[in-house]
TrEMBL record:
<keyword id="KW-0004">4Fe-4S</keyword>
<comment type="function">
    <text>DNA repair enzyme that has both DNA N-glycosylase activity and AP-lyase activity. The DNA N-glycosylase activity releases various damaged pyrimidines from DNA by cleaving the N-glycosidic bond, leaving an AP (apurinic/apyrimidinic) site. The AP-lyase activity cleaves the phosphodiester bond 3' to the AP site by a beta-elimination, leaving a 3'-terminal unsaturated sugar and a product with a terminal 5'-phosphate.</text>
</comment>
<feature type="binding site">
    <location>
        <position position="201"/>
    </location>
    <ligand>
        <name>[4Fe-4S] cluster</name>
    </ligand>
</feature>
<dbReference type="Pfam" id="PF00633">
    <property type="entry name" value="HHH"/>
</dbReference>
<dbReference type="GO" id="GO:0046872">
    <property type="term" value="F:metal ion binding"/>
</dbReference>
<feature type="binding site">
    <location>
        <position position="194"/>
    </location>
    <ligand>
        <name>[4Fe-4S] cluster</name>
    </ligand>
</feature>
<dbReference type="GO" id="GO:0051539">
    <property type="term" value="F:4 iron, 4 sulfur cluster binding"/>
</dbReference>
<keyword id="KW-0411">Iron-sulfur</keyword>
<dbReference type="InterPro" id="IPR000445">
    <property type="entry name" value="HhH_motif"/>
</dbReference>
<keyword id="KW-0479">Metal-binding</keyword>
<dbReference type="GO" id="GO:0141016">
    <property type="term" value="F:G/T mismatch-specific thymine-DNA glycosylase activity"/>
</dbReference>
<dbReference type="GO" id="GO:0003677">
    <property type="term" value="F:DNA binding"/>
</dbReference>
<feature type="binding site">
    <location>
        <position position="204"/>
    </location>
    <ligand>
        <name>[4Fe-4S] cluster</name>
    </ligand>
</feature>
<keyword id="KW-0378">Hydrolase</keyword>
<keyword id="KW-0408">Iron</keyword>
<dbReference type="InterPro" id="IPR003265">
    <property type="entry name" value="HhH-GPD_domain"/>
</dbReference>
<dbReference type="InterPro" id="IPR005759">
    <property type="entry name" value="Nth"/>
</dbReference>
Length: 227
């Protein structure tokens, strides 16, 4: 029986606590060794799996050493280097332009503020949040990817539809100490159980408090459509 707890705050704390127990070692899955590699990996990860990104960056990071190398790269060659990534032509352009900005405006260093990061080509708030959290140890918000968006709506934590609006609501109900980790927990749960098309509600540790449970509900609150 999927029944929400009495308030979104209580629901949120219970969700996070249970997911901590279920995924105690949940963390970022992108592979990187410095802030620039992190930034590039996150740009590449948009609408692409982390597994695919990691397979591409293993060679990419060996070939290009520093922002100067990316900024000077031939556009077609860089695109070819990442051609198994979704929207690789656009992402190659973002990477070149971003690295040029880093060289010219930030002395070759990845900036450490939200405003400076989101001024870079192809960098939105989600990407900037990841870079701040894992590159600079600065937590200013909640990273809202497709897993976080889907599960926060399914679990009744928000009715918002845009990542920006969802982030604002989550920042109000998720304890600030959990802002970073809650994203990893949702991602782990989304990959293991709460998939987009066919969630395994029978195996879900949140089933009894999930108003979208297929065992008890006709509607997926993430999409608003019937199961």
């Amino acid at each position: 029986m999927g029944t929400m707890l009495s308030s979104t705050e209580e629901q949120t704390v219970e969700v996070v606590d249970r997911l901590h127990d279920e995924y105690p070692e949940s963390t970022i899955s992108l592979r990187f060794s410095n802030r620039l590699e992190l930034l590039i990996a996150v740009i590449l990860s948009a609408q692409c799996t982390d597994e695919r990104v990691n397979s591409v960056t293993a060679d990419l990071f060996e070939k290009y050493d520093g922002p100067e190398a990316y900024a000077a790269a031939d556009q077609e060659e860089l695109a070819e280097d990442i051609n198994s990534i979704t929207y690789y032509n656009n992402k190659a352009s973002y990477i070149r332009d971003t690295c040029e900005q880093i060289v010219e405006e930030h002395d070759g260093e990845v900036p450490d503020t939200m405003s400076a990061l989101t001024d870079l080509s192809g960098v939105g708030r989600k990407t900037a949040n990841v870079v701040l959290q894992h590159g600079h140890d600065v937590v200013e918000g909640v990273v809202v990817d497709t897993h976080v968006k889907r599960q926060s709506r399914r679990l009744g934590l928000t009715e918002q539809s845009t990542p920006e609006a969802i982030e604002r609501e989550l920042m109000e109900i998720v304890p600030e100490s959990e802002w970073q980790q809650c994203t990893h927990l949702f991602i782990s749960h989304g990959r293991a159980v709460c998939s987009a098309r066919n969630p395994n509600c029978e195996a879900c540790v949140l089933e009894d408090i999930c108003p979208s449970s297929k065992l008890d509900s006709d509607t997926d609150l993430a999409s608003g459509e019937r199961w």
